[in-house]
Write a structure and sequence with these properties.
The protein is mostly helical. It contains 2 helices and no strands. The N terminus is likely disordered.
Length: 67
Amino acid sequence: MLPLMNSDSHTQDHLCYQIEQLRHQMVSLGTAHGLLHPDVQQCSRDLDLLLVQYYLIRRPRPAFSSC
């Protein structure tokens, strides 16, 4: 039986998986085509977006908010 995960934990795990997959893809593309190749650059931008999403989920949330 799988442990219960809240949606943040599930999302975080999924993002970690996607980040690692994209990181490996970027390294592979960079090795094959060079770091300035458009596919490598796009992969890097995609990775940046995933990392931003990950850090937004991980950031501490205030206990009380006025919003």
